């Protein structure tokens, strides 16, 4: 077994925190993974992994070696991609991540158009409502809402979204339109457990932060469910403006308390800085930033229905 393959095995074991899981990831047998790590430790002359019957963790030497292995393997991939011409021609596999609903509404249509334009590229889209570690999970491009990028990453702002409170016009006609965030304590509220805004909503009043505790009557696991309940007139919800842009434009939802909204959040396209960026990443970033930057729903000037 060559040293590069041993490094790949070791990285897989360290990241999966187990020999069996690493074997599944590499599509090989657990004994072969165990032998590879043992041979590596014997050749180097130090223990890289501390093992017990119930756990496995990196030693101090193992942690340093893991970082070196990741760097060396990345340089090897870069060299092979350069030799194959991927720095001049968009080709190969591209991994993209975005929040679930944003990805479904705004990123997925761009993916299809991009693939039609560049037939030598294949895309894996990871749509999840968590901040993905781009290096650990092999992500090339991320769409992130908020100030969410790390040193060594390039972030291009493509728009902004507001955190808006909304309800159907029928609900507001019946229960009244709140003139101040404090009045939300009297409202029927549906919210998503994934929004991290279940117990309180933040506003700005006369330039000062204002936190309003809320007691939602209904907590669901997805933003779409809370939005649909609001559209049907059951109560109020708070989401990001892009999530209700279509419903607001159609008059199905009305935004309230916009004078008290917190500053908008940036929408950013994020990728790793590098002296040389593969053509598949360069072209996709250009394609995506242009399309998102042209979308009116991602512009903070969207106003409430009057």
Describe the structure concisely.
The protein has nine helices and 14 strands. By secondary structure, the chain is an alpha/beta fold.
Task: Describe the overall structure.
It is a single chain. With 306 residues, this protein is of the alpha/beta class. The protein has three domains: 3-83, Arc Repressor Mutant, subunit A; 92-140 and 274-298, D-Maltodextrin-Binding Protein, domain 2 (3-Layer(aba) Sandwich); 163-260, D-Maltodextrin-Binding Protein, domain 2 (3-Layer(aba) Sandwich), CATH 3.40.190.10. It is 38% helix and 24% strand. It contains nine helices and 14 strands. It has helices at residues 3-16, 19-26, 30-44, 60-83, 100-117, 169-175, 223-231, 245-249, 279-293; strands spanning 49-51, 56-58, 92-98, 121-127, 141-145, 153-161, 163-167, 190-192, 200-205, 208-213, 218-220, 237-240, 254-256, 265-272. A five-stranded mixed β-sheet has the order 4-3-5-14-6, covered by helices on one side. A three-stranded antiparallel β-sheet has the order 12-7-13. A two-stranded antiparallel sheet has the order 1-2. The longest helix has 24 residues, at 60-83. It is elongated.
